[in-house]
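[Discussion] Sanity-checking designs against the backbone

I'm trying to build intuition for which residues belong where. Below is a C-alpha cell string of 293 positions. I'd appreciate it if someone posts a full sequence so I can compare it with mine line by line.
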C-alpha cells in the first residue's frame, strides 16, 4: 500500500517505513543488493513474510507431499555443478541451510556422521531424511548461525539466500562455522525475478535474485576460495518440461550437460533486470563450490 510521501520516496507498509525510490531503482538495475543493509526491524518483517512462503508454494504443487520426499527436482544440477567437486572423504558434521525436506542433502547423507538443517518452516521439519537421523533447528533472523566457529565440514545452501535480506551476514557466518578446509556449496538465481514490490505468480513475497558481480564480491570478501563457479539454468530449458512428462528437466544428466555448454557461451548481456525479450535468453543462476582457506 502506498501513501503520499516526498518526491523520490515511497511508503512501503510491509516494511513499516518510507523507502528511497532511487535505492529501489538501483536495486532493480542490479547495482546494489536489496535488503542486504536492512535494519533489524526490516529484517524481522521480511523474515516473517518468508518463514512459510516457500512451503506454502510447495504444498500446492502436484505430488509435493509424496511419502519420503524421494526426489529432488534439481538433482543433476546439484550433482554436476557442486557435489562432484567434493573430495572423496567423510564429513563429521554437515549443515543444510534452508534445505526444506532435505532431499538435496542425499548425496552426502551416508558419508556424514551428523546432519543439521536450519529451516524456518514448520511444514518441512522432520527427524529423518531418507532414513538418516537429522536435527532440524530454526534459523535466527539476524543471519547468525547458532554454532561455534569451525563446527562443520560442509555447508549446503541451494536457492535460499535470495529469500533472505542479509545475504552478506549469512555468507560470513557460513565461513565462520566451517572448519579450515571445509566446503560450502551454493546456488542462487542471478536475475531480478521481477519487481518484488508487486505480487508475482509462483514466487514468495520478497525473493529476488542476487546480481552475479555482487554475489561474487560477497563470496570473495568473506575470504572463501572459489573452487568452481558455473553459470547454469539457461532460461529456455524449463520449456522442455513436457518432454519429461512434467518432471523437472534438472533431473536429467544430459540436459544439465547441454545447459552447461549453453550457459558458458560468451554472448549474453548480463543485465540483471531484462527489459527486452532477447535479454531474457540467458543463464539465470550461478553455482559456487567454495572452500575455507
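Best answer:
Here's mine. Compare freely.
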Amino acid at each position: 500500500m502506498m501513501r503520499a510521501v516526498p518526491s523520490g520516496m515511497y511508503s512501503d507498509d510491509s516494511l513499516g517505513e518510507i523507502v528511497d525510490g532511487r535505492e529501489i531503482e538501483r536495486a532493480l538495475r542490479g547495482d546494489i543488493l536489496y535488503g542486504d543493509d536492512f535494519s533489524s526491524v526490516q529484517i524481522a518483517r521480511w523474515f516473517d513474510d518468508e518463514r512459510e512462503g516457500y512451503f506454502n508454494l510447495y504444498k500446492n504443487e502436484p505430488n509435493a507431499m509424496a511419502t519420503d520426499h524421494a526426489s529432488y527436482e534439481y538433482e543433476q544440477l546439484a550433482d554436476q555443478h557442486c557435489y562432484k567437486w567434493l573430495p572423496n572423504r567423510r564429513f563429521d558434521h554437515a549443515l543444510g541451510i534452508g534445505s526444506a525436506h532435505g532431499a538435496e542433502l542425499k548425496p552426502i547423507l551416508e558419508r556424514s556422521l551428523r546432519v543439521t538443517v536450519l529451516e524456518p518452516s514448520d511444514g518441512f521439519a522432520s527427524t529423518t531424511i531418507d532414513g538418516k537421523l537429522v536435527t532440524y533447528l530454526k534459523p535466527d533472523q539476524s543471519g547468525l548461525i547458532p554454532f561455534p566457529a569451525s563446527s562443520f565440514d560442509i555447508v549446503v545452501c541451494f536457492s535460499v539466500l535470495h529469500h533472505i535480506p542479509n545475504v552478506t551476514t549469512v555468507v560470513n557466518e557460513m565461513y565462520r562455522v566451517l572448519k579450515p578446509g571445509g566446503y560450502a556449496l551454493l546456488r542462487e538465481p542471478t536475475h531480478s525475478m521481477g519487481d518484488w514490490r508487486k505480487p508475482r505468480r509462483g514466487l514468495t513475497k520478497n525473493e529476488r535474485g542476487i546480481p552475479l558481480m555482487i554475489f561474487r564480491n560477497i563470496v570473495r570478501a568473506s575470504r572463501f576460495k572459489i573452487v568452481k563457479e558455473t553459470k547454469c539454468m539457461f532460461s529456455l530449458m524449463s520449456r522442455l518440461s513436457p518432454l519429461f512428462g512434467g518432471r523437472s528437466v534438472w533431473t536429467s544428466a544430459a540436459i544439465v550437460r547441454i545447459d552447461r555448454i549453453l550457459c558458458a557461451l560468451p554472448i549474453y548481456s548480463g543485465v540483471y533486470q531484462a527489459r527486452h525479450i532477447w535479454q531474457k535468453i540467458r543463464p539465470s543462476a550461478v553455482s559456487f563450490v567454495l572452500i575455507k582457506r
